[in-house]
Amino acid sequence: MAMPGMIDSTMHMTGVLSLPMSREGSGTSWLPDASPMMANHFAAGAWDFMFHYRAFVYYDRQNDADPSRRGDDQIGSVNWAMLMAGHDLWSGRLQLRAMMSAEPWTVGAAGYPLLLQSGESYHGRPLHDRQHPHDLFMELAAIYSHALGQNLAFQAYLAPVGEPATGPVAFPHRPSASGDPFAPLGHHWQDATHISYGVVTAGLFSRSWKLETSIFNGREPDQDRTNFDYKGRSLDSYSARFTANPDRTWSLSASYAYFKSPEALDPGLSEQRISASALNTRSIWTSGEWASALIYGANRFQHTDSWSNSLLFESNLAVDAWNSVFGRIEYVAKSAADLDITDRPPEARFDVGSIAFGYIREIARYPGGSLGAGGRYAIDLVPRSLAPLYGSRTPTGFSVYLRFRPRALRSAGTSRMADSPNGTGPAR
Predict the structure, then answer these.
(1) What pTM did the predictor assign?
(2) pLDDT of res. 416
C-alpha cells in the first residue's frame, strides 16, 4: 500500500512511449523531465484526474504609485486552475483539459501595474505599464497521442481555446518562474499565444524530440475577458516548433509563427515571430531544486525589414523544502506604439530592461497544498529619452504576496518524495 504523500504505482504517471507526465508543459510544449509536478491526483473508474492551480494574492506598487511617472498600485490576485482527465483510448491516450482564471474579476480588465509592460488594449488604447489579465477560459482542449512504433508516436491537439505550437512553455507553467507572480516584459515577444480562440496542432515525437505544426486564430483576446472571441475570425495563422530533450534536465526548443492581424487596434497589420529557448531543472544539495530558463524571442511586423528582439534569463532556486529565491533579467526592444508614446513615430524603438529578484517562504500547509509568503523587487532600465516619462532611468517597483499551490507529485522513474511544499524533500 502506498504511503501518504506518495504516488500509487497504478497511477498513469507516464504517457505514450512511457514519457513522464512531468514533461508536459502548457499546450503541447515540453519541460525537462526533472520538473516537479505540482498537482492533486484522483481517479474515477478508468479515468485519471489531475488538478493543478496557482494563486498569488498581492499588493503591487510601481514607481511610488505616481501616475505622472506611469506608476500605480493595486491589491489583487493573479491565478489559474486546471483540471486534466486522462483515459486509454484505441491503443493510445486521450487527455482532456479545462483551465480557467478568475483574473477578469481579481485583476480587472485594465490589468495590474507593471512598468514597461505592453500588449493588448483597453478602451481603444494600447495597454502600457500594465499586464493584461488572463481570460476566464484559458484552455479547453483535447489531446490524443498514439504510438506508431517503439520510439515514434503521433499527437493531435484540438482546442476551442488553447495554445499553438510556438514559443517555450508559457510563463505561468515554467518552474523557473514559479515564484514570480508577474509576467515577463517580453511576454508578447515570447509566449503570448498561450490563449488563442481556436487551435489545431499535429505532431510527431520520439523519446527525445518533437516536431509539430499548428493552425490557429491569430487575434489577441479582446478586453472582454469572459467571452469567446470567435466573431469574424478563422484559423488564419500558422506555426511550427521543434523541441529536443537530450536528458532529464534539459528541454531545448525553436519555433516560427505567422499571426494574421493579431491586434484589434491595427487589423491590417500581420506579424511574424521567432523564438528559441533552453530550460533546465535539476536537483541541488540535499533537498533543493534549481530551475532556469534562457529565452530569445523576436517579432517582425508586416511592411518592416527588421526584427524587434527580446532576451530573458530567469531562475528559481528552492534552497530546501521551505525557502526559495528567484530572479529575472530581461532586455526588450519596444516601440513607441508598444509603450503608447504619442510624441514619437509609432515605429521608433527603445531598448528597455528589468532586473527583478525575490524570496518566498512556505509558512503553512493545508490538505494537498501549501501557502507561501514572499516579496519581489524590480529595477527597470530605460533610455535617457524616456527618463522624463518615468521620473528616472531606473524606476522601481515592488510587491508582497501570498502564494497558494498544490504540493508536488512524484513523477515516474524518480525517487523523490512528494510530501514537501516544493516536492524536493522527504515528508516531515
Answers:
(1) 0.93
(2) 37
